[in-house]
Amino acid sequence: MLKHKRLGKTSLQVSEIGLGCWQLGGLVTIGGVTITYGDFNEEDAYKIIDKSLDLGINCFDTADFYSLGGSERRLGKALKEKRSDVYIFTKAGYIPTYTETKISEQDLSYHYLLSALDRSLNRLGTDYVDLFQTHFAPQTEEDFKNIEKAFDKIKSENKAKYCGVSIGYEYEKGIELIERGLVDSLQIFFSLLDNNARTQLFPLAKKFNVGIIAAEPLAQGFLTGKFSHNTTFPKNDVRSRLSKNDIENKVKRAKDFQLLLNEHRTMNQLALAYILSHEEVSTCIPGVKTTEQLKSNVSSSEIKLTLDELEKIRNIQSKWQSSKY
Questions:
Q1: Distance between CA atoms of 324 and 305, rounded to whole angstroms?
Q2: CA triplet 247, 248, 252: central angle to 5 degrees?
Q3: Helices and strands (H and E) in the chain: how many
Q4: 136, 217, 270, 304: which has the highest count of C-beta atoms within 10 A?
Q5: In angstroms, how far is the first alpha carbon of the chain from the final one?
Q6: Burial of 49 by CB count in 10 Å (0-12 exposed, 13-18 middle, 19+ buried)?
Q7: How many CB atoms lie within 10 A of CB 30?
Q8: What is the pLDDT of residues 97-153, one digit of tens each?
C-alpha cells in the first residue's frame, strides 16, 4: 500500500509515488522536432491513469506544454469522475515556437501566467488545480515579482490551492524562492544520477517546510536498466536529442549501482527507493508507458535501503558529484 506524505506545509497528503504525465499526451512535433517521448494512444493513457488510481496514486503532474495541451486533456477526461479524490499539478511558462535553435520561448509575465492557467483549467475540465507551478525558475527580478503577484491572484481566486516552481537543476534559484517565501513547493530533478540537491537545497526546504517533488527520478529511463551505450532513440522521442556522450555517461553511471541489485529489487526500484529515503521529498513522479512499469515503480515503496547501502550509494556518487547527469 502506497504511503502518503504531506507536501510541505500544504494540506495535500500526496502518495509518495505519483505519476508524471508528459508521455501520456501523444506524439507532437514542432517544425518536425519532437517534444514528447514518442507516440502514445489515448486508450493506453487511460489504462495507465486507471491503474495508477487502483494502486493508490493520488497525484498527477502535467503541464500545458506536454503534447501542447494533449496531456492535460487526457488527464482531465480520465479523472473527471475522481476529481475530489486526486491532486492535479500543472505547469506553465513555455510557449511553443520554432527557430533553427529552439522550439519554445519562456514567459513568466503576470498576465501570461494567469491566462495560461485559465486555458489549462479548461483543458483539464476543472475549476481549480491543487498545485500550479511555473515550468522554469525566475531569471530576473521582474520574474520574481511577476510570480509573486500571479501566485497571489491565482490563490485569491481559488484557481489553485497552492503554487510552486519547477526549477530543474537551478538549486540556487530554488533557495532564493524559499528565502523570499514565494513557494509552497519546488519540483526538482533528483535521482541517483542527479543528487546535488541533497546538500544544496534540502536543508533549507526542510527548515521552511517547503515540499519537494522529485521529477525525472529514473533519469529519463536510464535508471531502468533497459539502455546500453549503443542505445539510439527514435526521432519521435525527445531523448533522440541526447548526444552519444550523454548516453554513454548516463549508462556508465547507472551501471555503477548494479552491485546493489538482487533478486528482490530491480534498478528502477532501487532508484525510487533511494529517492524515498530522503524525508525532504514528499513525492516523486516517474513517467511510465505500461502498467507493468507502473506496478514495478509502486512496489519500490516497500523497499527500505539500509544505512550501509545508502553509504555505498554516496561513495559511488562522490566520484562524480560535480557533474549533472
A1: 24
A2: 120
A3: 11, 14
A4: 217
A5: 31
A6: buried
A7: 14
A8: 887 778 889 999 999 999 999 999 999 999 999 999 999 999 999 999 999 999 999
C-alpha cell at 62: 502535467
**Lookup: cell for 187:** 519540483
- Residues 181-192 have a mean pLDDT of 97
57 contact partners, CB below 8 Å, separation of at least 6? 2, 15, 17, 18, 19, 298
243 vs 152, more confident: 152
Distance CA 226, CA 233 (A): 12
3-class SS string, 48-92:
HHHHHHHCCCCEEECCCCHHHHHHHHHHHHHHHHHHHHCEEEEEE
DSSP structure string for 87-138:
EEEEEE-EEE---SS-SEEE---HHHHHHHHHHHHHHHT-S-EEEEEESS--
**SS3 of 166-225:** EEECCHHHHHHHHHCCCCCEEEEECCCCCCCHHHHCHHHHHHHCCEEEEECCCHHHCCCC
Q: Convert the pLDDT of each residue in 34-59 to its tens digit.
A: 888 888 999 999 999 999 999 999 99
pLDDT over 70 (residue 321) = no
